[in-house]
Amino acid sequence: MNQPIKEPSFRESVDQMFNRAVSLMDLSPGLEEKIRVCNATYTVRFGVRLRGKIHTFTGYRSVHSEHMEPVKGGIRYSMGVNQDEVEALAALMTYKCALVEAPFGGSKGGLCIDPREYDEHELEQITRRFAYELIKRDLINPSQNVPAPDMGTGEREMAWIADQYKRIHTTDINGNACVTGKPLNAGGISGRVEATGRGVQFALRAFFRDSEGVKKAGLTGDLDGKRVIVQGLGNVGYHAAKFLSEEDGCKVIGIIEHDGALYNPAGLEVEKIRAWIGKHGGISGYSDSHHVDKGASVLEEPCDILIPAAMEGVINLNNADRIKANLIIEAANGPVTAGADQVLREKGVVIIPDMYANAGGVTVSYFEWVKNLSHIRFGRMQRRQEESRHQLLINELERLSKDKELGWTLSPGFKDKYLRGADELELVRSGLDDTMRIAYQSMADVWHGRDDVDDLRTAAYLVAIGKVAASYRAKGL
Ligand code: GLU
Which residues are within 8 A (CB) of 448 and not within 5 positions of it... i.e. 6 or more apart? Predict the structure, then answer.
């Protein structure tokens, strides 16, 4: 058997991509170094008494760049968490926020734990203790550092964190803004759970509006009928696959999970598979005829769009040359290593990079943070006023039609649709769509406009680093 090819660590991989981009920029070496390095990483080891004995856990919160505050980024629960990974992810948060103009610096946290080994009560104790350790050092704070969900965490953990913060800071009126991704009934915002997957859909729509980009990927037309393979049917992969198949006419032909894959060129039923995984913990047993034991091999099946939505490094030097997709959209952070990125670029595969592709999460987190600070739901002031103005117009049209005997009739359904004012979910989706379109355009202008840039990742880094540098310069650095 061939030995797997050893590659640089995740953080070194991110640094290599960063270096590739800055070599095309005119930054002073000092500023370049200032932007690249991670400002600080806090490591904490704490004990929690569970099942009659003390268990020790190791957690991290890394702050990559404080050119804007608060700094922002999720907290992940996984056995793979380590300092290198958290620092790489924090750096990506800096660039991601800059690219989509979310006014934050970059941060990330992680706890080395397999959450499946603990029950809900135990997880609550562990989460509250970890949060306490971070809160007392202002590494969770509405104006300094605002975590969010990531792999292995979700609304539930965010609610515990917010509650823990408010127990310590009892008079902080902005306490809810100390963390995003909370449940709706605990200060959250509509559309945050779907946000990253929705952002992947909006990113693909933006890409397919760019005829030059579509041509570079060797594709034609729009999303309708495109064959999609998704790796990881967690929150991000599931929502992306669901929206693309239900709303854009894509055909999901492959789904890869931790216990194998499902592959069917005729298309798979995303909703049913997600329900199966929810019940059985994996895809095993779902379908004998479409099951593939060696799940990772499905990454190499021919398809139009490959969506790695699970974890870093899944496309690497060991499989890059066998990938047949025309387009890869990085729904996860860092799924393509720097080495694989080069192989794929040489093959002409277009990659929509993580810092753009999965920015939907932090974008809607930004909306949630603003909602928490303003203490009012989006749309509460305008919605009915908007409806009454629309009603005025409809009344006038109906009066004209009647008085002047014009015989106008409104098409069926129009009145209802036009009269309904936007609720919070619609406003969130509209804000996200706008964000993803503008950010895409900023990358595409560089990608198509500069002779020395031949990929979207370098274009994304150029835009993001340019913004971070401008912000440092404005501070006199
Ligand atoms: N963990 C997500 C990410 O990697 C969301 C971060 C946030 O909302 O702050 O982008």
Answer: 212, 213
